[in-house]
Design brief:
The protein has 218 residues and is an alpha+beta fold. Helix content is 31%, strand content 17%. A hairpin with a 6-residue loop joins strand 5 and strand 6.
Amino acid sequence: MIEQREELGEPSVLKKRLLALAALDIIVCAEEWLRYHSFAANWAEELSLAKVDNGSGDHLYIVFGSQGVILKGFDHESALSPHAGDVYEVWPGIYDQVPDSLMAYLQDPALEHDVVTFCIWRASNEGQWQQGEVQIPQGADDGSRWLLGTISKSPEDYVEWAEGYYDLSLDMETVKQIFAGALITADMIQLLYPDRDVEQALMELNTLGIHKKMTSQE
């Protein structure tokens, strides 16, 4: 699991990637409930929330705050699912070593605290990602490898993924610009998805909390 944790990168880099993915999904998918990636910049006081949801019962929640970042994942087919045993309960060790300051981020009922198969965190005073000492049965999988893989690491990864998921062929250069944090213009939106309501897309993009980078051209 060490490799997957380190692939998350620095928290600031991870946040930038998640914002780009949410922005791209806003552009290419007008229906909010069908989007795979989303980001709430002002989800709670001093907290931002990114979500990855495949619509089939699997998800990632990533909460960013002043105390650090905590990521909670759930693979509904995993043997570590709280639904998999005779008694409904969180698999031992998943949350045992999480700092109280970060556990507090998961107390909102919307985050489904008990619906979890793995948890990764990084406190603001730590230099690396952490995970609890979880004993995974031989042949079992906590779902972390493939769920973390849904956070595209590059424009190329996203374009390939979107072709399969949304059945769209996207302009690579425009996707690269968005990954780099460029100003998103009406022309860029139309280039990526000609049928998109541009004004609606721009309004939603502004909710990501990066107004200066995501606004229509003057």
